[in-house]
Design brief:
Order of helices and strands: HHHHHHHHHHHHHH
Shape: flat
Radius of gyration: 28 Å
Helix content: over 70%
């Protein structure tokens, strides 16, 4: 006997509700791939990698082929261009000089900036606000303002045409930004760690080296990468303070080679790619730490 009342179909109703919930969750899920996002990422990837691809193609062509097709694929892949450019431009000595300058700059900036940031955040220094203002002002002034007095002073001190003299200038130029970045890291560390270390009898140096440095290690790595890459790519100060060919960094070696080989853009492109490869490899290997250091340093108030 039927009652005339339609009873709900429990199983199908539950399935429909579950399907609706899954659909709403998928629409709200930020990790769900979106066509517009993919399109923007593809455009940015082409914009970033396109010049490098053209650069590589030109490095594998002859000068005549570059004139005919500057952005096309090489008809004959001339890998010997890299060997000739490496030899003619003396890229080996330039890379070695840049390696020494970059590593020394990164190490010095890390030491100076970490100790300065620790002093500004943990020590009772008079006029902390004035020091911060001084650092901000010094970072905003262009280095070109100091070239003439620096050139005179470095000549008097015997630091002109010296790699060490150039490294000292890099320390002064890159340390203010590094100090502010590491200061942001130190501000995020609770003072309970410091108090516990002091109760155990730790002095200032031990507290800095054994407690604070391991906790701000991502920031120190970021500072090392930024300052090292800036020193590797820097041109103005290097061309002003270095004259001897055996002391030139790789950027100046490439510039000198370009001045002497201006018609042969295939060899110039090959030499430029040789200079860029170490930077690309280092960034690809350490990009995650690099980004983490920047983002964590920006969380501090």
């Amino acid at each position: 006997m039927t009652t005339g009342i339609d009873l709900p179909r429990t199983g199908s109703t539950r399935r429909e509700a579950s399907a609706r919930r899954r659909g709403e969750t998928a629409r709200r899920d930020p990790r769900r791939p979106r066509p517009l996002s993919w399109l923007v990422l593809i455009v940015l990837a082409v914009y970033a990698a396109g010049p490098l691809v053209v650069f590589l193609f030109n490095a594998l062509k002859t000068p005549a082929e570059i004139s005919r097709s500057p952005i096309g694929v090489p008809t004959e892949w001339r890998w010997d261009n890299f060997v000739q450019a490496f030899t003619d431009a003396d890229m080996g000595q330039g890379l070695l000089n840049s390696f020494l300058i970059s590593v020394s700059t990164a190490a010095g900036v890390c030491v100076i900036a970490s100790m300065a940031a620790y002093s500004m955040t943990r020590l009772d220094l008079p006029g902390k606000g004035a020091w911060i203002l001084y650092i901000l002002v010094s970072t905003s002034l262009p280095i070109q303002l100091f070239l003439v007095p620096l050139l005179s002073l470095w000549s008097t001190l015997g630091l002109y045409n010296s790699q060490f003299g150039l490294i000292v200038i890099y320390w002064a130029v890159y340390s203010p930004f590094a100090t502010m970045l590491l200061r942001a890291f130190l501000l995020t560390i609770p003072k309970e760690y410091e108090e516990a270390a002091r109760l155990d009898g730790a002095g200032e140096w031990r507290l800095f080296s054994r407690v604070m440095v391991p906790m701000i290690w991502p920031g120190i790595l970021t500072v090392a990468l930024v300052s090292g890459l800036q020193a590797y790519n820097e041109f103005l100060l290097a061309v002003t303070f270095i004259q001897d060919s055996d002391k030139l960094p790789v950027a100046l070696s490439l510039f000198s080679f370009q001045q002497s080989q201006s018609p042969n853009w295939a060899l110039v492109s090959a030499a430029g790619l040789i200079m860029a490869i170490p930077v690309i490899v280092v960034f690809l290997l350490l990009q995650r730490k690099f980004i983490e250091g920047y983002t964590q340093g920006g969380l501090a108030n």
